[in-house]
Design brief:
- 2 copies of one chain form a homodimer.
- By secondary structure, chain A is an all-alpha fold.
- Chain A has helices at about 10-25, 30-40, 45-70, 80-85, 85-105, 115-140, 145-170, 175-200, 205-210, 215, 225-230, 240-250, 255-275, 280-295; strands at about 75, 80.
- Chain A has a two-stranded antiparallel sheet with strand order 1-2.
- In chain A, helix 3 runs antiparallel to helix 5 (about 85-105) and helix 6 (about 115-140) packs antiparallel against helix 7.
- The interface between A and B is large, with 36 and 36 residues.
Chain lengths: ~300, ~300
């Protein structure tokens, strides 16, 4: 999948940050999921290209604005847009990225566009709602594990699920098949996010790429934090040494609970694939889910 | 035109600021223009409602994010969203408003949606580009009057023009008729913005509603500032008393030039209407343009 060259558009100060944000690369996981989902039903990349581009530009828009809100200074090893330029640039170029996502979507065939737009809007709304819940959690003391699962479903899983559903829809899959891929994506996304939380605590410092314990240092309410809180009243991480917290996570069975949740959601993701045609593309989705359980970064 | 009640949606912290921003009211000029344009061709409000809602929500989204970027603390007599809540809320709720605009648009009939989305995206891109140029002007010393006209065409006029074009398109008007209304909207928008610049200098303090000379105090590059710069080398406002600047504007013929430009664009707007059916709705558009020339606020 290629994206347009935004670096040559005017005004430069609007489009150069967009080109910069998109050039950072990343895994391009969302377009990949849309394309594989279409291939499951015999369509090719061409059929989903506008949706794949829209999903990738949208994802990078969320990263750009999230980095402003989180005051994050580094993204994929480079200064974030609001650091390299300034905050106003990050806000406005981010807004334009969201509009660009819809401009990509507008390239879809006219008969496919209305439903694709509905799915895309629902996803985008879910992502913003998830981001809001995440921000709310920082100051709330009554967050439950259920609240957390709802939050990561919005913030992470819906985008993966919708990428898959859109790919299937554009390839002519029926409602049940679309739903199966959507559900696969939700479970994949939940497993992915819990794995993220787990690696932050128990990842290999050699391969993880950043310092272990970042979430603990920030007292972030992760899957592990909330599971510990459910198992031990007055549980907290504030002012505690990393080793103590990790020891608690082992003793309270929190680490095991996270590993179990990842395995469960991976299993549920795989089960969703049973409703689909068996071919090399569903095999790819199967492998993707399995690789996830063992990933180190 | 009604808008959904966002105040009851969850999460509250995402939607309450949206409800607040939309409850401030304002003139609802953009939906009005879309509706009148549709009425010119015999359609009713119903036919354009999703587009009218999308335009109004989009307009208020731009105000919300512009206020963050300008560090503006008051909007329509009330604290701005980033003052009443905080900056992150203003960014994220603004993002969601942009998505809501597209969700309204998605309610259009399937046969009308693809072209409406193209027009809307083009407009939204023009508005962001105009806002970027406006920000660029603050630090540029080589801004010409032509640059300025291009900037306000994006920042103000395109939105009015597209509201009219969308209304006409949805009512079944042909391309030439759509173009005539678009052009009317561009000239109306340009006249409107220059009038804004003029009132900031020569408005009646009794009726203007805010202090005279705000643009001068901020050394903003307005139509008047740039015309003065074209007529007198090294012309500037920095550190100068309001009375002196206004006296210059009179002596250099800058005030007269602004009045002439408003009259010219109003005349051009009216001329565009000649290509359209003559009925009570084109009369309303004629009156709207004429009222503009004499407005005090």
């Amino acid at each position: 999948m290629t994206l347009p060259d935004y670096s040559t558009r005017e005004p430069q100060n609007l489009y150069a940050p967009i080109a910069y944000a998109l050039a950072a690369g990343g895994k391009r996981l969302r377009p990949q999921l849309a394309i594989i989902a279409a291939q499951v039903f015999g369509a090719d990349e061409e059929a989903v290209l506008p949706a794949a581009q829209a999903l990738e530009v949208f994802h990078n828009f969320t990263l750009l604005h999230d980095d402003v809100m989180d005051h994050a200074s580094v993204r994929r090893g480079r200064p974030t847009v609001h650091v390299k330029w300034n905050e106003n640039t990050a806000i406005l170029s981010g807004d334009q990225m969201l509009i660009e996502a819809y401009s990509h979507l507008a390239q879809l065939p006219a008969d496919k566009l209305p439903q694709a737009l509905v799915l895309f809007n629902k996803m985008a709304t879910g992502v913003c709602e998830g981001q809001q819940l995440d921000m709310d959690f920082e100051t709330r003391n009554d967050v439950t594990l259920d609240d957390y699962m709802r939050m990561i479903e919005g913030k992470t899983a819906i985008l993966l699920a919708t990428a898959l559903q859109l790919g299937a829809y554009l390839a002519g899959a029926d409602d049940a098949q679309q739903q199966a891929l959507f559900d696969y994506g939700i479970h994949l996304g939940l497993a992915f996010q819990i794995q993220d939380d787990l690696l932050d605590c128990f990842g290999d410092p050699e391969t993880f790429g950043k310092a272990i314990g970042g979430d603990i240092a920030e007292n972030k309410k992760t899957f592990l934090w909330l599971t510990a809180r459910e198992r031990k009243s007055n549980w907290n991480t504030i002012g505690r040494a990393l080793e103590d917290v990790l020891a608690d996570y082992e003793q309270l069975g929190v680490r095991a609970a996270a590993e179990q949740a990842i395995a469960d959601h991976t299993q549920q993701a795989l089960a969703c694939l049973d409703a689909l045609p068996h071919n090399e593309y569903t095999d790819q989705l199967r492998q993707l889910a399995q690789r996830l359980v063992g990933r180190k970064v």
